Amino acid sequence: MYSVRLWSTRHARGFRRAYAFVERIIPGLAPLMRAVGLTRAEAVMRPLERISKEFLFDCRMCGECVLSSTGMACPMNCPKQMRNGPCGGVRDDGNCEVRHDMPCVWIEAGLGAQRIAGLTGAGADLSSAVMPSLPPRNHAHDGRSSWLQVICGKPTVEAIPRFSEDDVVRHEPGSLENACHSQRFVVTVEVAPPDSADPAALIARAARFKGLVDAINITDGAGGNCHMSSVAASAILAAHGLIPVYQVACRDRNRIAIQGDILGAAALGVQNILCLTGDDVSQGDHPEARPVFDLDAVSLLRVARGMCDRGLYASGRRLDKAPSLFIGATANPFAPPYADRILNLEKKVDAGAQFIQTQFCFDVAMLETFMREVRRRELHRRCKIIVGVGTLGSAKALRWMASHVPGVHVPEALLARIAASADQKAEAKRICIETITAVAGIDGVAGVHVMGHKNEDVLAEIIIESGLRQRQRNA
Ligand code: SF4
């Protein structure tokens, strides 16, 4: 079946043409379907659709067929149910973060979209092959026939329009938002919440950065591991005069729980959120847990913006008081499919991301390539790009991270330099400071996001020694 699915994306152009032709003529069957009765018609159509699309595309009968918008690759085959492009965990060989034995569905989708657009060759401009932004799944449609909807003239799913700056409801900006709109180089840091019901250790670790950073990201079950909830840890920091960025992952909660947590966070003084899809559960300490992935990062951004700017839940129900939040998202310029990463970033900006924090940058040349395209598309003028940097204590620890943490790329030359040093920890720190200096010189970079697991003292030294707080921004 899998080889048939690959064959289908290889022939995406022909399938797309056939689909377009059928879409034009098939509504002619609508009177017949109505005469038979839609329930009876669906009982006949459903098995026919299931058998043929399962054979050709590994279709899962989501009832919202988007094959012609996704290069004839079914996004339901993505273990994270991503609807709007690849997650940040695609492996160096292009295989899936979760299912190592199959190529990422979104690499297939990108190739299919290029074929539909008639683009070939490594240097092809993918702009015209851009796949539209899709709304979150409507699970009430599971198992329904998409063909019947097409016959009846209903779109199976409608692409969502680009977020408009006119939609933004102006609110009193928080300090991270103010920093992002100043000319100062922004510094954020990542702190993992504790495995404890006592907040004292969290407060002490976060307080280490008072006066050194503009905000402190609180991770949300990073790596699929369980810790104190991000919303609680963020609220604790806010209550202690610190500026948290509440990271919201789609892995563990559906849209009802996520919206409730966003409201709760805002009510408890949190002013910044970071929307991300999240690492799969198979990477963490509860691999037997059921992943949720009801939303992906792009649809979560839409939901959060709708709450803040329109005062509406995703259902359309009105909030009594809308939250005021500075809303961010992530990007990974260091994982394949590289050309699609910029399109993925653009989708997030179109969905309303106001700031972006990237995966660890250990390869400045790759970042420069990415930022050239960011500037060409003027994305840095629509959102602030904050580049992830960091350090670990040894070449062995870095090598482990590169092979176990999805989406982290560490060049061999850098590993060799650290391994050859008599003091690996000091060398890794030196490299981090050099990376910060190089990153700060790239036009369009608004700041750095400093990461290093439970390594707060070294991170604070790096921030001080690199002179980050005194830096002005390039362009
Ligand atoms: S790498 Fe990520 S986006 Fe690609 S198929 Fe796997 S889970 Fe989905």
Give structural notes.
This protein has 475 residues and is α/β, with parallel strands linked by helices. Helices cover 40% and strands 10% of the residues. The chain has an eight-stranded parallel beta barrel with strand order 1-2-3-4-5-6-7-8, surrounded by seven helices. Helix 3 (30-36) crosses helix 4 (38-57), helix 14 packs antiparallel against helix 15 (412-419) and helix 16 (424-440) crosses helix 17. It is globular, with a radius of gyration of 23 Å. The structure holds iron/sulfur cluster. The site of iron/sulfur cluster has 14 residues, from helix 5.
Cα separation of the termini: 51 Å
CA-based gyration radius: 23 Å
Bound molecules: iron/sulfur cluster
Q: What is the oligomer described by this structure?
A: single chain
Whole-number tally of structural domains: 2
Query: At CATH's second level, what is the architecture of the largest domain?
Result: Alpha-Beta Barrel
Number of helices, where a helix is a run of at least 4 consecutive DSSP H or I residues: 17
Q: Main beta sheet, described?
A: 8 strands, parallel, barrel
Give the DSSP E fraction (strand runs of 2 or more residues): 5-15%
Q: Quick one: how many beta strands?
A: 8
- Placed side by side, the strands forming the largest sheet appear as 1-2-3-4-5-6-7-8
User: Unreliable runs, pLDDT <50, ≥5 residues?
Assistant: none
Quick structural gist:
This protein has helices at 2-10, 12-25, 30-36, 38-57, 105-117, 146-151, 175-180, 200-207, 230-239, 255-267, 297-310, 338-350, 364-376, 395-404, 412-419, 424-440, 456-465; strands spanning 186-191, 215-218, 244-249, 272-276, 326-331, 355-360, 384-390, 445-451.
